Please model this.
Amino acid sequence: MIKSLKICGISDPKTLNYILKHPNPPKFIGFVTNYKKSRRFVEYGKLKELLDVDKKDIKFVSVLVNPTDEILEKLRNLNFDYYQLYDVGPERTKDIKIKYGIKIITALTVSTEDDVIKYKNYLEVSDIILFDSKGYHKSESFDHKLLDIVPNELNKMIAGNIQIEDIPNFKNKDFIIDLSGALEDENGKKDISRINKLLNLSGKI
Model:
């Protein structure tokens, strides 16, 4: 079986509630909380209402790109279990982890092997290392073979334009699989039927 799933970029109550009530829910749900360039960005007022739910055993993740102290203070009392940090150095990551008492997903954007080995700088401050593409919100791909150098025992997540049909290829890879764009329709909105297909598939792998 694959290790677990993360569905990212949720921005509306209908989709969130569907996922929460699904018989094969993901382990993680991600919300884009400060990156306004993303069509998946959720404004703070809406985010506060969106997160006011019984999340059961699902872990909520705040996706943050180089967050300021101001946004971190706003988010500190919301219903998050993890901060997923892009473009944040190890020392700053450590400070955030300690100050807010939160688990950390360090997101590394990858195009070369040198990008991959940066995970070694974050081992002491991260609960999960995410290997993503350089595209951020654009759902771009990267060569997943670059991750062959990553040890199996590392608690790791993989993103970067992964499609539902790709999931069986990861069943022996010991990765948490992170999807977003593959679950959206032509207008960039989350598609319930695609989410259902993914979650039903994950229950069989």
